[in-house]
Amino acid sequence: MRAALYSTFGDPAAVLASGQAPLPEPGPGEVRIRTVLASIHNHDLLTVRGQYGYKPALPAIGGSEALGVVDALGEGVTGLQLGQRVAAASVQGTWAEAFIAPARMVIPMPEAIADETAAQLIAMPLSALMLLEFLHVEAGQWIVQNTANGAVGKSLAMLARAWRARRQPGAQRRGGGAAAGAGNRPRVRYLGGRLEGSRA
């Protein structure tokens, strides 16, 4: 199968290459998923650089979240069917034509959810949700949020509205209009190397 492989850690643009890898076979409790669309997260790139919390054995296939179709079931797997549209995150090797995932980590995806959304629906939105739940955020409370322009930040902005929490994005880089589109209205802005903003 085709895959995005790397044999050494480093700049993804330099060390990643398209190549051939054996088609993996699912073990007990696992499924094989034919990839439809895989996301590229910051932590994926940090993993390729060797700068994330763990280092995979090399050579490795990049990627940790994807949308696909179940095409093989390991022993003991129940609740999933061949041909079922699913997504998985916190797995390895999704930048390939197929990858293996523990069945317990696989989430069926309704056809109503577009591929582009389903391929990134787990890791980042759930991270934002867990932040709100871990902090026991309640309606009317303030959240001061930095890095509001990333996938977790945008998800947090939308979820905070549903929580009826009040948010203060900490900063916005020049050209960061996408953050504003997610509901961020920064009062602190980056201006030519210095920060300006309203007082708390």
Automatic annotation (TrEMBL):
| A single GO molecular function term of this UniProt record | oxidoreductase activity
Where is each Alcohol dehydrogenase-like N-terminal domain found? Answer: 27-111
Which portions of the sequence form the region Disordered? 167-200
Q: Give the Pfam families listed for this entry.
A: ADH_N
For this UniProt record, give its keywords in alphabetical order, as a comma-separated list: NADP, Oxidoreductase
The source's domain of life comes to Bacteria
Q: Name one GO biological process term.
A: fatty acid metabolic process
InterPro entries linked to this entry: ADH-like_N, GroES-like_sf, Mito_Enoyl-ACP_Reductase
Protein name per its UniProtKB record:
Mycocerosic acid synthase
Q: Which organism is it from?
A: Stenotrophomonas maltophilia (Pseudomonas maltophilia)
